[in-house]
C-alpha cells in the first residue's frame, strides 16, 4: 500500500517500484488522501478552456489513467487539498482543508482501508513530507498513526478486524547524489548537463538523505511506465519539464533504483535491503 497526498504523487515518488511489484503479481493499492483540487495548471498546453473550471473531475480522470498505466489499484480517502501557501508571511490554510482536519478523522479512514486491504508493507513520506507541503506533512502523520492503530483491536473497532502491517517505509526521491552522478555521465559524454542550474540551487543544509536510505529497489525496467504515468497527469506535469530532462538510458545506466527508508518494522530484516518484503515469510506475501 502506497499512501500519497495528491494525485500525481504516486507517479513521481516510488512509481517504478509499485509498477514492478504489480507486474510481478503482488496486489498494490495506492491510497490518495486528497483530490488535488487546489492544484494549479502547471502544463501550459493544458491551460485551455474547460479545464480549470472542472479541475476536480480532470484530476480524477488523470489519476485513473496513471493507475491503469502502473497496473495498480487506487482508492480516494476523500479529503480536500490544502494548497501550497506562498508569500511572506504565508496566508492561513483554507478552512476545512486536509491539513486542518483533526488527525483522528483521516487516521480512522485510513485504518479502515488498511484493515480491508490488509497490506504487508506500507510506503509514505518522512516527517518533512519529502518537501514541506502541508498535505505531505499531514500524510506522514496520518500514515504513521494508521500503521500503529490498524493493528490495535481497541482502536477504531468499527473499522474492521485489526491488521498489523509488517513494515512501514518512507520514500526518498530528492537525492543529490543521483543528480551528481548524472552530471558525471554527461561530463564523460562531453555534453552539457541539462539540470546544472537546478543542482546549483539545491539546498544542502539538511544533510545527505542517502544516509537515511535503508532499501534500494531495482526497477529501471519500469522507468518508462513511471514516465507514462507522470504524463497522464497532464495538468500537473509539463512533458518538456525537468522530470524528463535526463534521458531514460542514462537514468537506467547510472541510477537504476528507487530509494526507501525502513521507518518501522515488526519483522527481522538485514540492512541494506533490496526488497520491501525482506523478512516477511513467503507464505504471507501476496
UniProtKB/TrEMBL annotation:
This is Mycothiol S-conjugate amidase. Its cofactor is Zn(2+). InterPro entries: GlcNAc_PI_deacetylase-related, LmbE-like_dom_sf, Mca. Belongs to the MshB deacetylase family. Mca subfamily. Zn(2+) binds at residues 6, 9, 136. Monomer. One of its GO terms (biological process) is mycothiol-dependent detoxification. The gene is mca. Its EC number is 3.5.1.115. It is an enzyme of class 3 (hydrolase). NCBIfam families: mycothiol_Mca. The lineage of its organism: Bacteria, Bacillati, Actinomycetota, Actinomycetes, Mycobacteriales. Coiled coil: none annotated. Signal peptide: none annotated. It comes from the Bacteria. GO terms for molecular function: hydrolase activity, acting on carbon-nitrogen (but not peptide) bonds, in linear amides; zinc ion binding. It catalyses: mycothiol S-conjugate + H2O = an N-acetyl-L-cysteine-S-conjugate + 1D-myo-inositol 2-amino-2-deoxy-alpha-D-glucopyranoside. Keywords: Hydrolase, Metal-binding, Zinc. A mycothiol (MSH, N-acetylcysteinyl-glucosaminyl-inositol) S-conjugate amidase, it recycles conjugated MSH to the N-acetyl cysteine conjugate (AcCys S-conjugate, a mercapturic acid) and the MSH precursor. Involved in MSH-dependent detoxification of a number of alkylating agents and antibiotics. Binds 1 zinc ion per subunit.
